From TrEMBL:
Keywords: ATP-binding, Cell membrane, Kinase, Membrane, Nucleotide-binding, Transferase, Transmembrane, Transmembrane helix, Tyrosine-protein kinase. This is non-specific protein-tyrosine kinase. InterPro entries: Bact_polysacc_biosynth/exp, LPS_length_determ_N, P-loop_NTPase, Wzc-like_C, YlxH/NBP35. GO terms for cellular component: plasma membrane. It comes from the Bacteria. The keyword Methyltransferase does not apply. Residues 2-89 form the Polysaccharide chain length determinant N-terminal domain.
Length: 500
């Protein structure tokens, strides 16, 4: 990963990092407050040689003394030194081993000074013990070093510094503990953020898409918390930044080199990624640009186009494919635009077979001759094969990916499903893209998306609008007179060219 990736991870998980850092500081503070204060008192003993009067003898004696100092340091915590201290001070509730845990000794390199340090919850007791241990060491070493045939020891220990009662405890070291707690909490927070990012397989930005496929990202639809209320944003609020995103998608689509083709399947890897709202809004945007557009609801499993646009959906594509009605009977113009909608009609038991039939192929060819752009809203790719079947007969498939919802494996599976049947992938459209934060998409100059919170798609379909009286009559007529509609268009009806 690059430095920018780590910065994005930190920005994305800063709350967790701060929280764990505070937890670390709080834990260190709690530990420090619950520990009993400990005081240290230190006394010092000087070791010297009493033998020799010449320079050579003194030098030899000094070498001997330095060699013995290490032995005396180790001798400080032994029972032979500590038992007299316990007896002299009347310490009945402690043993030599227990007292040894409080006592430590050291000697600086190339010196003959021994520092004796005692740690105790009482400052006065620590000083008293340190002085007593120093006195006991002085006496016991003199006895140990005195030879049987001599009255004096060649080594002399002198107490050169008495231990004083300290005013400030050495433990707990609150500033140090707080600093260590903050560092540990920060390290845990950063580690958690990196691990969370590595284990997160969801697609959250264009960088994740680019890591999976080389197909161009032709659109990014920003997240809109009100998308459920207004799925057809180009109708509800044409000046909304989300509307501008669909217009940008329209522009990018016109620049795609698809060998002169102009029919596109809008699909996704899984449901609820915004494919239907993308198909509808894209069709409206193309019609607003003066294109003659046919929007076909080819989702013969869960059709939504007629609900979004509020058109009659009782009869449609399935009825045309089985020859039950003529195309001109069910192709409906939407508003005053040059947009014509072919609903899905009744849900058949064999959607894949119908969409891959010769009748469907002939219908797509007819549309391609008579209109500028054909948009087909198809089912998701992973649950069923309908979209892959359609994509092979069109100019290409536009795969819709929901940011923060679709996983990398799902997108890879969707693209593989298309490539398996040699279908072209025209491009990728990201929906529900964050408008602020580290994963926000750069929408370009002038829109100011980061401050509005617009974008996204409707995860659920709105309630369909009541059909007009004329469309209700048309549906009843198609249901009660199947023989008439199967034989072709009613007398006096227009051809598709006349209608378009």
């Amino acid at each position: 990963m690059e430095l920018s990736d780590y910065i994005r991870i930190l920005r994305k998980n800063w709350l967790v990092i701060v929280a764990l850092t505070l937890v670390g500081i709080g834990s260190a503070a709690a530990y420090s407050l619950t520990r009993e204060p400990q005081y240290e008192a230190t006394s010092q003993v000087f070791v010297s040689s009493q033998a020799g009067s010449t320079v050579a003898e003194l030098q030899q004696g000094n070498t001997f003394t330095q060699a013995r100092v290490t032995t005396y340091v180790n001798l400080v915590t032994t029972p032979i030194i500590l038992n007299p201290v316990i007896s002299d001070l009347g310490l009945e509730n402690i043993s030599a081993n227990g007292l040894a845990e409080k006592v430590s000794a050291s000697s600086p390199l190339n010196t003959t000074i021994i520092s004796i340090t005692v740690t105790d919850p009482s400052a006065a007791e620590a000083a008293r013990l340190a002085n007593a241990v120093a006195a006991s060491l002085t006496e016991q070493v003199e006895d140990l070093e005195t030879l049987p045939d001599s009255d004096a020891s060649p080594i002399k220990l002198t107490l050169v510094k008495d231990a004083d009662a300290p005013f400030v405890p050495v433990s707990p070291n609150v500033p140090l503990n707080l600093a260590l707690g903050a560092l540990v909490g920060l390290a845990l927070g950063v580690g958690f953020a990196v691990l969370r990012t590595v284990l997160d397989t969801r697609i959250r930005s264009t960088r994740d898409v680019e890591a999976i496929t080389e197909r161009p990202i032709i659109g990014a639809i920003p997240f809109d918390p009100r998308a459920k209320e207004r799925p057809i944003i180009l109708k509800e609020d044409p000046t909304n930044p989300r509307s501008e995103a669909f217009r940008a998608l329209r522009t990018n689509l016109q620049f795609l080199d698809m060998d002169g083709g102009h029919s596109f399947v809008i699909t996704s890897s899984m449901p609820s990624e915004g494919k239907s709202t993308t198909a509808v809004n894209l069709a409206i945007a193309l019609a607003d640009a003066g294109k003659r557009v046919v929007l076909v609801d080819a989702d013969l499993r869960k059709p939504k186009v007629h609900e979004y646009l509020g058109v009659e959906g009782g009869v449609g594509l399935t009825d045309v494919l089985i020859g039950r009605v003529h195309l001109t009977d069910v192709l409906q113009q939407w508003g005053s635009r040059s947009l014509y909608v072919l609903p899905a009609g009744k849900i058949p038991p064999n959607p894949s077979e119908l969409l891959g039939s010769a009748q469907m192929h002939a219908l797509l060819e007819a549309f391609s001759r008579d209109v500028d752009v054909v948009i087909l809203d198809a089912p998701p790719l992973l649950p069923v094969t309908d979209a892959a079947v359609l994509a092979k007969r069109t100019s290409g498939a536009i795969v819709v990916v929901a940011a923060g919802d679709t996983s990398r494996h799902q997108l890879e599976g969707a693209i593989d499903a298309l490539e398996t049947v040699d279908a072209k992938v025209a491009g990728i459209v990201l929906t529900m893209v964050p408008t602020r934060g580290p994963d926000a998409y750069g929408y370009g100059y002038g829109y100011g998306y980061g401050g509005y919170g617009y974008g996204g798609h409707a995860p659920e379909s709105p309630k369909p609008k009541p059909a007009k009286a004329s469309t209700r009559r048309a549906r009843r007529s198609a249901e009660t007179a199947p023989e008439q509609v199967r034989t072709g268009a009613p007398k006096g009806s227009a051809s598709i060219d006349d209608l378009l």
